[in-house]
Amino acid sequence: MPPIYISYLNRLDVAALAMTDAEILAAIETALAAQGRGEAVIEPRVHLEPGVANGHFNVLRGSLGGSIDAAGVKVVGDFVDNYKKSLPSELAVLTLFDRFDGRPKAILDASGITDMRTGAVTAIGAKYLARKGSKVLGHIGARGTAYWNVRLLDSLFDFDEIRVHSRRPESRDGFAAKLAADLGKPVVATEDWRSCVAGADIVVEASRLDAPQPLLKTDWIKPGAFVVPYGTMSAVELSLTDIMSKLVVDDWGQCKGGKFGSLRAHVETGRLSEATLHAELGQIVAGLKPGRERDDETILFWHRGLSLSDIALGHAMLAKGERLGIGQRLRFA
Questions:
Q1: CA distances from 124 to 97, 157, 219, 303 (A)
Q2: Cα separation of 251 and 62, whole Å?
Q3: Is 208 left (phi over 0), alpha (psi -120 to 50) or beta?
Q4: CA distances to 62, 101, 104, 139, 142 from 69, in Å
Q5: Distance, CA of 250 to CA of 40 (rounded, Å)
Q6: How far apart (Å, rounded) are the C-alpha atoms in residues 157 and 133?
Q7: Domain of life, per the record (predicted)?
Q8: Beta 328-331 vs 5-9: how paired, if at all?
C-alpha cells in the first residue's frame, strides 16, 4: 500500500486562513448549486444524547461532487450551558475522505466552519429569497452561528438598521458591541423579541431554548419579509407558516424527520409537507426553481445545517491552506 497522508487544520490554523466573506459565500453557493443539480448525496443527521448534560451531538454525513469531489463526516457537540465553562456552545470536528476509494484526506477543527457555513447559508438564502432593497435586520440569538449570520447578511445587503436580542443582557450587549466594531455601523441591542423583529425586512431566529416556546409571534412579521427560523427548539407559533407565500428548506430529507428543529411541529401537523414545500434552496441556486418573484411575497427559509456545506467550506480551507502553507501534514498509513 502506498503511503497515505492527511492534512490537519487546528483552530489556530483556521483562524490564520482569514477566510474572507466572499470566499465563504462562494464555497457554500457552489455546494448548494451542486446539491440542486443532483451531484451530491446527503443523509439526514443523526443525534447522540449522552444524557449527562444539557446537550447532544449531531452527526452529519454527505458526499459532494462537481468541482469539489469529497465525502465527509462532521461531529458537532451542541451544549447550551457551555458558556458557564467559558466554552463555545458548539465544538466540532470535520473529517474529509476521497469519495472514490475512501482514503482519509483531512481532519479540521470545524467549530468555526459550523458558524461560518451556517451564516453563509442564511445569507445565500436571503440573496435569492429576500427583497433586494432589504435594509432592516432583526436577529434573535447572540451565540454560536449568530455572528456570521449578521456579518454575511450585512456583506450582501449593507443594512441601515441592525437589531439583535438574546435573553441575557450581557450576551446581547457584548454581541452588539462586537458587531458594531467589526461592521463599522451601529447595532442596537433590544430588550425584547418584539422590538427586535417587528417590521424588519429580514428576521433570523437563532435562539437557544431548553424547550419549545412560541416567543416569535406571527403578527410581528412584516408583509414581504424574509424569515429564517432555525433554533434547535422551536420558538415560533404554528401560524407562522400560514402567512408565507413560499416555504423553502435546505434539505427536505433531514427536515421531515428527527426530534429537533424549529418547524418540527409544523411538519408533524402537515403545515410543512412535500405538498406545501416550494423548493430546496439548492434547486433555487441551480436555477431549477424560482426564488423570490415579487416584493410582496413573504417567504420562510428553514435550514437545519448541511454536511455538504461543511465539506465545501472545509475543502476551500484546505485549498487556501496549501497555497499559504498553513496547516500540518500527518502520516496516516
A1: 26, 11, 26, 11
A2: 12
A3: beta
A4: 11, 12, 13, 35, 34
A5: 13
A6: 8
A7: Bacteria
A8: antiparallel
Mean pLDDT of 318-324: 97
User: Which whole number is the average pLDDT over 107-112?
Assistant: 94
Beta-carbon contacts of 276 under 8 Å, excluding residues fewer than 6 positions away, are 241, 247, 270
CA distance 50 to 20: 36
At residue 261, the pLDDT reads: 82
Per residue in 22-35, pLDDT (tens digit) is 999 999 999 999 99
Distance from CA of residue 46 to its chain's centroid? 17
Domains in the chain (CATH in brackets) are: 5-113+308-331 (3.30.1780.10), 119-305 (3.40.50.720)
DSSP for 12-75 reads HHHHHH---HHHHHHHHHHHHHHHHTT-EEEEEEEEE--SSSSEEEEEEEEEE-TTT-EEEEEE
DSSP 78: E
Q: Which residue has the cell 447572540?
A: 142
Task: Report which of 127, 73, 142, 60 is spatially closest to residue 102, judged by C-alpha positions.
Answer: 73
Tell me, what amino acid is at 87? L
Ordered alpha helix ranges (H), 100-188: 111-129, 146-157, 169-183
- Joined grid coordinates for residue 156: 450582501
The 10s digit of each residue's pLDDT in 234-266 is: 889 999 999 999 999 999 988 888 777 888 999
For 153-178, write each residue's pLDDT tens digit: 999 999 999 999 999 999 999 999 99
Residue type at 38 in one-letter notation: G
